[in-house]
Amino acid sequence: MLRLILIPLSLAVVSIFAAPSYSRGSVQLDLESGIAQSGYNDVRYPGTTGTKLSLSRDLSLDRSLFWRARASVTFGDRHTLSLLAAPLRLDGQGVLANDVTFGEALFQAATSVKTRYRFDSYRLTYRYDFIHRDDLRLGIGFTGKVRDAAISVRGGGRTSEKANTGFVPLINFRADVRINQRFGLLIDGDALAAPQGRAEDVLAAITVATTKHIEFKCGYRILEGGADNDEIYTFALVNYLVLGVSCQF
C-alpha cells in the first residue's frame, strides 16, 4: 500500500523538478538532524481491552538520533510543492510492575521487556504564500501524509506488535521572517484535529544565511498526536533538538 501511494507522489515531484521553465533558486533541498526525545508515550492495544502502558513512564525510552529530508520546488513565486521523508525510531526497555496485555500476548509482572516505537512519515505538501515580501513570507496549504507506524513489545519469550499504515490529511502553514539579510525566524508545520485523533508537527527555528543559496537553522520541533478507538489507544509527544541546512539551486 505504501509503495502504491509513494510512487505517484514521487513522479509528480520529479516531473516538476524536470520542468525547464523554473527560475534559479526555485528548487530547494532541506536536511535536518539532531536528537529526538520522548515526552509521554501511552498505548493500549486493543483500544478497549488491552492494558494501558506508558512506554516513557512505566518503562523508559532512549533518546535517538533522527534525520529528515525534504525536496521542494517553488513556481510562480508563491506556489510550493514538496516531498518529505521523516523516519523515527525510539527504543526502550524496563521491568513491568504489573501484568500487561498487549495484543494477544500477556506479559507478566516483573518481566524485563524491550520496546520499539516506530513512526515513519512521508508527506506531499502544496502551499500558497499569500504574503510574499523580502522580509516576510506567510503561507498556508495542504499536506497528504502517509503514516507507516508500529509499536512492539518483546520479553519473556513473547513478542507482540501493532503496525498501521494509513493516510492522514493535514493543514500546512509556514511563516518566514527576515530580521536582516543574514538572520531570520521560521515557523513551519503540519497539524489537524478530528474526532478520530489529532496530529501536530511544528518547528520553531532561528535561520542563518551564509550565502545567497545556503541557509542553516537551529531550533525546536514538537511532534504530538494519536488516536483513540476500539483498535488502539495511542498518544505520544516527541521533542526534537534540530540542526539543519537548506540549499537552493
Labels describing this entry:
mainly beta, elongated, two-stranded antiparallel sheet, ten-stranded antiparallel beta barrel, disordered N terminus, 249 residues, 1 helix, 15 strands, Lipocalin, single chain
Write the layout of secondary structure elements.
Layout: H1 2-18, E1 27-44, E2 53-54, E3 60-61, E4 64-75, E5 79-86, E6 89-95, E7 100-102, E8 105-107, E9 112-132, E10 136-155, E11 158-178, E12 183-194, E13 197-209, E14 214-228, E15 233-248
Could you describe the 3D structure shown?
β1 and β2 (53-54) form a beta hairpin. The chain starts with a helix and ends with a strand. The model is unreliable at 1-25 (pLDDT under 50). 7% of the residues lie in helices and 69% in strands. The radius of gyration is 20 Å and the shape is elongated. Strands 1-4-5-9-10-11-12-13-14-15 form a 10-stranded antiparallel beta barrel. It has 249 residues and is mainly beta. It has one helix at 2-18; strands at 27-44, 53-54, 60-61, 64-75, 79-86, 89-95, 100-102, 105-107, 112-132, 136-155, 158-178, 183-194, 197-209, 214-228, 233-248. The chain has one domain (2-18, 25-248): Lipocalin (Beta Barrel).
